[in-house]
Amino acid sequence: MPLRHGHDLLAMPGPTNVPEAVLEAMHHPAVDIYGGGLLETTRACHDHLRRVFRTRHAVYVYASNGHGAWEAALSNVLSRGDEVLVLESGRFAPGWGLMAEALGVAVQTLEGPPRGAVDPEQVETRLRADTERRIRAILVVQVDTAAGVVNDVPAIRAAIDAAGHDALLLVDAIASLGCLPFELDAWGVDVAVAASQKGLMTPPGLAFVAAGPRARQAHKGAGLRSRYWDWTEREGPEHYQKYCGTPPEHMLFGLERALEMLLAEGLDAVFERHRLLAGAVRHAVEVWGEGGAFEFNIVDPAQRADSVTVLRMREGFEPAPLVEFCRDVCGVTLGIGIGDLSGRGFRIAHMGHINAPMILGILGSVELALTTLPLPHGPGGVAAAVRWLGDELR
Ligand SMILES: *Cc1c(COP(=O)(O)O)cnc(C)c1O
Questions:
Q1: Residues 23-31, mean pLDDT to the nearest whole number
Q2: Domains of the chain by range and CATH?
């Protein structure tokens, strides 16, 4: 007896729900790539992206997914044989490290706590021990979408400075840009990467790299530069050079509209919306978890991300029936567990184009699944979420 009808909802951490206005902007005939409105669209996208990354410096747009942005960041500032330090907190920073390794970069890893954030003190200690200053760059994610953790980027910057180390700071903001505060210039981030399909409310297919002055300096001597990703190439005078070929026109039409929506709402309001909706999810989960079937993956509440909540099943419980019920009966696609939570966890995304009825509907669907399957759970998770939201809004 499916209750599924009309619009399904994506509650997985990418791709996320795309606003109608963004889809409409993409519903457009192909246009001339040499002139006319497309040049203005490129200019607008770059301007808007600078505002979202909070930088006065350069932003590069690639027809790729987030993995492409990883390669773009590495290849523009590093050379074969360089060393990087990966700050582990879940799955994605090590994944970025694997890409560095494949490019011929030597990778060291600062192991993270299995269910928590990078510890800035350990970063400082590790960098102080690098007396020969061999580490050229530090790779860290702001929000790890596999673990559901948020790292404190300014504190990591402060740790690098306290160690007196000159390594570049490279930040993966793919699951946080447009959801949580991020400040490239003010935080002293050298390179940040993002992609279209998470907080930026656009279908998958575009990736973004923002680079500060120290990264641009390192770029001059980077031996891994390749024609497609190369920043200098993309700064050439011709419009097609910005994309190293045909611009991904329809993606750009959608992106321009999505960024306009974010900026019209105001980034502070966007961040507050994410904080409130994430808090609602966490209050529901807190109550459901009392039943003993699952718990938060991230142990310290202060380290739980405002863009995705990751749940870990307790011994003897499986996530699959819950995820399948939500999808097949309610039309709500939760994220499955990945990495060490593969088959052992699930994820509720709250990033991008989401609002109260969407989140309350997602939570209601999960509670319906818990009740119907059934899975042991504390009663009244949705009520707890509503109560908390009410207190915050009053
Ligand atoms: C989704 C994600 C990626 C990978 O992005 P793709 O577009 O799938 O290549 C990388 N890092 C983080 C933190 C992500 O959430």
A1: 97
A2: 9-16+266-393 (3.90.1150.10), 31-264 (3.40.640.10)
Enter the tokens of residue 78. 């590093």
Residue nearest to atom 6 of ligand 1 (CA): 66
From 62, 88, 172, give the residue whose CB has the most ligand 1 atoms within 8 Å, as the site to mutate: 172
Pocket flag, ligand 1, residue 250 (CB < 6 Å):
no
Q: Among all chains, which residue has been given the structure tokens 């090590």?
A: 94
Tell me, using a 6 A CB cutoff, whether residue 230 lines ligand 1: no
Per the confidence metrics, is the pTM higher than 0.90?
yes
Confidence class for position 1, pLDDT limits 50, 70, 90: low
Structure confidence by residue, pLDDT tens digits, 88-125: 999 999 999 999 999 999 999 999 998 999 999 999 99
Nearest-CA residue for ligand 1 atom 3 is 66
Distance of CA 23 to the CA centre of its chain: 21
**pLDDT per position as a tens digit, 270-305:** 999 999 999 999 999 999 999 999 999 999 999 999
195 C-beta closer than 6 A to ligand 1: yes
* Exposure class string for 365-381: b at 16+ Cβ within 10 A, else e: bbbbbbeeeebebbeeb
94 lines ligand 1 (CB under 6 A): no
